[in-house]
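Why does residue order matter? Because the sequence determines the fold. Keep that principle in mind as you read this record.
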Amino acid sequence: MSPEIIQPPEWAWYYIAVYFFVAGTSAGAYFIGAMEELFGSGREREVSRAACYIAFPLLILVPIPLIADLGRPERFWHLFIYNQGGYPYLNLISPMSVGSWVLLIFSVCTLLSFLDNLVADRVISFPLFSRYYNRIPRRLYAVFGSLAGFFIAGYTGVLLNVTASPFWAATSPFMGALFIVSGASTGAAAISLYLIWRRRNSGGEVERLEAFDRVVMVSELVLIALLLILAGRTALPLMTLPFVAMFWLGTVALGIVAPLWFKYRFRRHPFGDAPVLAHYLCILAGGLLLRISLLQAGQL
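Structure:
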């Protein structure tokens, strides 16, 4: 299809890119926590506990930009209910419908894990919760929630790949993969900030989290390179203002390369709180700017 006759989707970044970022960070954090829950020793639960305390509150924010972008926010329930029959409805050929249902499943899993941790930390002492929340269902939430979270983190990128926008279509299938690793990195940064706030940012779990994040950030750079090679001339908007500042400076330089250098430089040495906070905040800002840049560049 000729680019001249393609109608841009006109997605507002402050709705869609923010939704991509918040949902991806929540999914990434939950996935990391679930992996620690499923494959960790069980003696340390600081990372998985922090992940559960982050994932659900972030997910509460997701419907706000998502519903606001619908144009008719009062009709959001049509994503789940067939309006002529009044029964639950899933349209398997609609990415929006499938994504909404998986988002609902992920929300339930994050809520159960959130409540589970409140019980374990004795914030909730109601006997009914204490009796039924134990390690077996905790792992069940982790399995189903991590699968749903993995889907949520990647499907937002796939959603762009299946559109008629030349830039987005040309980057298939790497946009979804890039959003997954970016969500894992911002999720790890959010967990680390929580652990710093709770003064629990030490030990074997934290070292594994940092090692995981280093691998993820290298993968992010590789995927960005592959994506740009595939995109070719359709990625030229990224070489113009304001994308040079947002994408190259904000995402690549300050959001990935600088924090990655910091992690390798100080991986065997203790460092103070201030530099650590700064590099985690850079990772989060870079993740948001990545989604804004790729969303806006595809609409030019």
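The chain is about 70% helix and 0% strand.
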